[in-house]
Design brief:
Blueprint: H1 2-17, E1 26-27, E2 31-34, E3 44-47, E4 53-58, E5 68-73, E6 79-82, E7 94-98, E8 101-105, E9 111-114, E10 124-127, E11 133-136, E12 142-145, E13 153-155, E14 160-161, E15 165-169, E16 177-184, E17 189-193, E18 196-200, E19 207-209, E20 215-221, E21 224-229, E22 234-240, E23 247-251, E24 257-261, E25 266-271, E26 287-290, E27 296-299, E28 304-306, E29 313-315, E30 320-322, E31 340-344, E32 349-351, H2 366-374, E33 379-385, E34 390-395, E35 401-403, E36 411-419, H3 449-469, H4 483-488, H5 494-500, H6 523-533, H7 550-563, H8 574-581, H9 596-614
Parallel strand pairs: 26-35
Antiparallel strand pairs: 1-10, 2-7, 3-4, 4-5, 5-6, 7-8, 8-9, 10-11, 11-12, 13-23, 14-20, 15-16, 16-17, 17-18, 19-22, 20-21, 21-22, 23-24, 24-25, 26-27, 28-29, 30-36, 31-36, 32-35, 33-34, 33-36
This protein binds 2-acetamido-2-deoxy-beta-D-glucopyranose (11 copies).
Protein name: G-type lectin S-receptor-like serine/threonine-protein kinase
Organism: Camellia lanceoleosa
């Protein structure tokens, strides 16, 4: 496995040298794909012209049950769009491109998702460099585009007009529509939960309001985040950001709106900054407070306790239960005024919506405020300011409450409760303080490079094979033959050059019986040793003699070795890899101390292979290390070298 990956990486690198990035940005009907069918390719089946975005049948977060048709930014692995977010499929579920558009069905053929009816028949599907998935008719007129159906993310070049929403996902592995959304209004961008606003762009310290034109859409570009009005000619609100070629604005599943930039997705803007302002951060009536490091911690307010298996809090007195809004489908007909009472939350506790909704009354006393709530079955509680007599009502759904220090110290919350215990109230005496709701930050996978290398290399390789046999029809074979990978595990830089230079050679590169170094040599180790000895041409295919220079091969080998440094931190990122290959940045010197694991691994590999296939013949080794102790053959079973984790050999960060 390790060797195949390494050879794949070498592939991609070699193909960069001869500038082989060819377009697979178009697919034509009839085409079908499933993750299983493209499993060798990590589910990727379409790639934009310059390889910035790919389309994939992908299972986010490594779970194995929910697969989605996604558009993914290659360098960062950020999912920028998903088609069937509410209707995931299994790894054998299919996407089909027909003259009618795209449809997605599960393995049993059950319909899951499709594009809406189109005006004309589809002649191509294109993935653009901006990350837009576009259906074109025969005149290249756009029939449908994913940019018009945003999920939780916008990219540079995409507009989010008034009337469209970004909706959060449920979690990083479940892309279905969650409860948070970002809406663009005529004057602002708003974050909402249950139709209640909890954040506005205009109130952020980094946002500048330039004009009072009506907002038409939100967009990001290389230098900022903007709300535009007057047909794009006026900036209404702007947030200036440092220049970056890649940037996304994403409503995270946690309820925060983020702007990320660069292939490492570094966060440059977030709203709300204070996580306690996220409406459901601590569950229903959970009390969120910031610790010294501004990390939110959850507990229950006084007079409330947590219920087991949930972050929610309920009245401690088991003879009271929370009321349920009558607009809710969960009907407990609990609006009998004589059964209503109010549980006081205590001072220094506020509700996210109070800053964004108008009080329903001012200049009244508490009993008037409570009566207002009791008479309205949609009211779930009140906040009352004694000094001003302001009365706020809580509606739709109860979210978390937050502890405030100083601000609105006079504001007191009262939660509507009903006499009579409800089943959820239970009899457990859970200590609310003990219950810490896990607050999961966005986990940014720092890897990208490895995936990109392998994916691109493999994708390219498949393409070049296919385009050789049948003129690119992009109807890939249904099951990749296992022989494909076998032909990879041959050392040398062969296959790419076979195609590009030796076009007259037949077939797809070496078979295990063809010339070249024996298959069982562990190629990364071989490359390392030839690097140490400065014999770079040894690494290249013999048939290339005279056609590649030692310098060209040296560059490849050095970049490739840097990419397999044992310490991930020593691996170059994709930007530097590309820079090195394009001769813009000097090629790094591989750190031998971080590559020694290859010797260990390589030796185990060859030993294992020896036992399995060569029955003790030592002479198959092309380059026995002078002092290599290959004699201890009895030590390994064929699988015993797998104790080096894939992370350790996984290539660049
Ligand atoms: C594509 O599939 C449709 C039915 O799904 C069929 O009618 C049509 O002939 C097919 N076209 C091609 C080019 O195979
Ligand atoms: C692709 O890259 C080339 C060279 O870097 C550039 O000239 C071209 O504009 C890019 N194409 C797109 C669609 O971005
Ligand atoms: C997903 O389902 C939610 C309701 O659960 C709905 O509001 C949303 O529009 C759906 N999204 C898509 C893309 O179908
Ligand atoms: C549509 O676009 C493709 C690729 O850019 C091009 O090859 C083709 O000629 C175009 N067709 C028309 C009708 O413009
Ligand atoms: C939110 O408001 C819209 C229209 O204003 C309404 O259709 C929808 O039911 C509301 N949703 C909730 C959860 O109150
Ligand atoms: C981004 O948009 C703003 C507002 O239209 C504009 O002033 C700025 O020049 C744009 N930046 C780039 C890099 O195009
Ligand atoms: C808005 O601008 C586009 C081009 O930027 C133009 O085609 C369109 O006519 C304009 N619409 C209005 C209402 O000015
Ligand atoms: C909820 O209760 C009201 C009156 O008590 C009734 O009219 C309505 O049908 C109920 N809704 C549901 C979903 O049971
Ligand atoms: C409300 O509760 C009181 C006392 O329990 C009862 O007498 C009355 O009939 C109830 N009213 C309704 C509308 O359920
Ligand atoms: C609250 O105000 C109402 C009318 O303004 C009045 O009738 C009532 O007595 C007041 N209650 C208290 C406790 O002050
Ligand atoms: C509320 O305000 C009134 C006077 O406006 C005062 O007498 C009363 O003590 C206050 N109550 C509380 C709980 O602060």
């Amino acid at each position: 496995m390790g060797s195949s990956l390494f050879v794949l990486a070498i592939f991609f690198l070699s193909c960069s040298l001869v500038s082989c990035i060819t377009s697979t940005e178009f697919l034509y009907p009839n085409f079908t794909a499933s993750n299983l069918q493209f499993v060798d390719n990590f589910g990727n089946f379409l790639i934009s012209r310059n390889g910035t975005f790919k389309a994939s049948l992908f299972n986010p977060n490594g779970q194995q049950t929910n697969f989605y048709l996604c558009v993914i930014h290659m360098a960062s692995n950020a999912i920028t769009w998903s088609a069937n977010r509410n209707a995931s499929i299994s790894n054998s579920g299919k996407m089909s491109l027909t003259f009618n558009g795209i449809s997605i069905t599960d393995q049993d053929g059950a319909f899951k998702w499709s594009t809406p009816p189109l005006k004309a028949s589809v002649s191509a599907l294109q993935l653009t460099e901006m990350g837009n998935l576009v259906l074109l008719d025969q005149f290249n007129v756009t029939l449908w585009e994913s940019f018009r159906y945003p999920t939780d993310t916008i990219v540079i070049g995409q507009n989010l007009p008034v009337g469209l929403l970004l909706s959060s996902a449920v979690s990083s592995g479940d892309l279905s529509t969650g409860n948070y959304r970002l809406a663009v209004s005529a004057s602002d961008a708003l974050l909402q939960w249950q139709n209640l606003t909890y954040w506005k762009l205009s109130m952020d310290a980094k946002a500048y309001t330039n004009s009072n034109y009506a907002v038409e859409y939100m967009a990001i570009n290389q230098t900022g985040l903007y709300l535009f009005g007057h047909n794009g000619s006026v900036v209404v609100i702007q947030v200036n950001l440092s220049p970056s070629e890649f940037r996304i604005a994403k409503l995270d599943y946690s309820g925060q709106f983020n702007v990320f930039s660069g292939s490492s997705l570094s966060r440059e803007f977030v709203g709300p900054d204070d996580k306690c302002q996220i409406p459901f951060i601590c569950g229903r009536l959970g009390l969120c407070s910031d610790d010294a490091a501004s990390n939110p911690t959850c507990s229950c307010p006084p007079n409330f306790h947590a219920i087991s298996n949930s972050a929610d809090c309920v009245p401690s007195d088991g003879s009271y239960s929370l009321s349920v809004s009558c607009s809710s489908t969960d009907n407990n007909s609990g609006s009998n005024a004589s059964l209503v009472s109010y549980s006081r939350l205590g001072y220094g506790i506020d509700y996210f919506a109070n800053d964004f909704t108008m009080p329903v009354k001012s200049g009244v006393n508490l009993s008037v405020c409570e009566d207002l709530c009791s008479g309205d079955c949609s009211c779930l509680g009140v906040f009352f300011e004694n000094s001003s007599g302001l009365c706020f009502v809580l509606q739709n759904e109860l979210g978390s409450v937050m502890s405030t220090t100083g601000r609105n110290a006079d504001r007191l919350g009262f939660i509507k409760t009903l006499v009579g215990s409800s089943p959820t109230n239970g009899n457990n005496n859970f200590n609310g303080q003990a219950l810490r709701f896990p607050i999961v930050g966005l986990v940014l996978l720092p890897f990208t490079g490895f995936f990109l290398l392998v994916a691109l290399g493999f994708f390219w390789w498949r393409r070049s094979r296919i385009s050789e046999t049948e003129k690119v029809k992009l109807s890939y074979p249904t099951s990749p033959s296992s022989g494909d990978l076998d032909s990879f595990s041959i050392p040398g830089l062969p296959v790419r050059f076979d195609h590009s230079i030796d076009d007259d050679t037949s077939g797809g590169g070496y078979s295990s019986s063809s010339s070249g170094p024996p298959q069982l040599v562990y190629f990364p180790l071989f490359a390392l040793e030839m690097h140490e000895q400065g014999k770079y041409l040894e690494v290249a295919d013999l048939r290339l003699e005279g056609r590649v220079t030692s310098e060209e091969v040296e560059k490849l080998v050095r970049v490739a070795l840097c990419c397999v440094h044992e310490e991930p931190a020593l691996r170059p990122n994709m930007v530097s890899v590309v820079g090195m290959l394009e001769c813009e940045t000097p090629v790094g010197q591989p750190r031998l101390e971080s590559l020694n694991f290859l010797r260990f691994y390589g030796r185990r590999f060859t030993e294992a292979s020896t036992i399995e296939e060569n029955d003790g013949q030592d002479d198959f080794m092309l380059y026995p290390r002078a002092n290599a102790s290959v004699s201890s053959k009895m030590s390994g079973s064929p699988t015993s070298f797998s104790y080096i984790s894939s992370q350790q050999v996984s290539g660049p960060r």
